[in-house]
What does this fold into?
Amino acid sequence: MTSRSRLIRELAILAAVAMVLGFAAFAAQRFLLTPRAMTTDIARSMDDALGPLILRRVELSQSEVTNPAVDKAFALILARLRPALVQLAPGSPGIRIVVIDSPTVNAFTLPGGIICVDTGLMRSLDSAEQMSAILGHELSHVAHRDPLTLMARQVGVSALAGLLTGGHGGDLTRTLAQTLVSVHYGREAEDRADAFAVQLLARADVAPSSFAQALQRIRKHEPKDPRLVTWIDTHSPIEERIARAAQEASKLSVTPRVIGVNWRMLVAKLPKS
Amino acid sequence: MSTNDTTQTPRLPQPEEITEREKDDAMGAYLMMFASLAIGLPIPLLNLIASMIYFLVNRKTSSFVAFHALQALLTHIPVVLLNAGVVAWIIANLATHAASWAWFFWYLFFTILVNLTYIVWSIIALINASKGRFFYMPVFGRISFARYYGPKATRAPNVPRVWENKPPEGF
It folds into this structure.
């Protein structure tokens, strides 16, 4: 055997060792850290109790929009989405939509089926179909209990339980509220939510391409990320998400029924923030 | 090729020919890596500089010390880069509110396992070095040997005898 072929053999040995270690690490990550199994162990009543608690915290810093026209519009959208949600995820909790007076383009989910929508997001969208697409994404977080998973992972189940019995001060609720407002649940959960939204729209007789359109609208309001952020960020780059949503939507054939909401007029009625 | 073929293999210093000082310095190269690994964990790239300084200072002592110091340095580089990746990932994740740690934990576990492998391998090399023996880690040992005992390095005169210290197989 020549020196070179021995070197190649040793390189192969090193590569094999690295692969074994990589696989061992993957197995460890897979079986030692299983947050999903953890969530199902937590009673649903925890979601229902924690949601309003955190919502109260959010409302301390931002005000809720109470407008009958807005409530009626969301009731119409939910009436359309609800049967599809029950089909896709039986046992999902009742949904409550809270519109928050804030210029940021954001929607977020609190435990127990509370979805908060910023007026900034409503302004950036064109139609009730696009709004229902965004809600479809958030409904996936509701159905899969992503907020509770994240909170339990962050502070532990016992701390959450302590919160309900009044053991902790307001600091923990504030931290949790801040987290949930600005959080991405990780790439896996976000991709699942995107796919869920498209499926949900199709079942609710809303054009599934609305989700890609809604993302397009949001993209215009996204701050430009510096390079460092994009390669480690867990959200798929938005272009990638749009392309995937459009591709998935093209596979489904749906005869859309219009949701009877004049979105432009509704947005005009929102308070100036 | 016979391992005792003195016309082909370079003449290597045998354990009893190596001074205690050289053995200590060669062992020190590996110990230095451990120390810098522990101290430099928060800022991993700094300990690479420390390792490099040790190598640059000690390579003049003798070829034996230089061989072990270079081997220690070369094996140190990938480990330090992996560790630097962990620190960079934590900082980046905290800075951008990205909440998925799934792949991070894979990377973290992988890095821990690589570190453990590296430490075990280095301890074996360290013991050998302290006894005045050569020890070849895969690839890195070969590169380091070629640098100080290969065809381009200056060789000691051939002495016919049975060698205890041998070059890597097939060299």
Summary: The longest helix of chain A spans residues 3-32. Residues 225-234 of chain A have pLDDT under 50 and may be disordered.
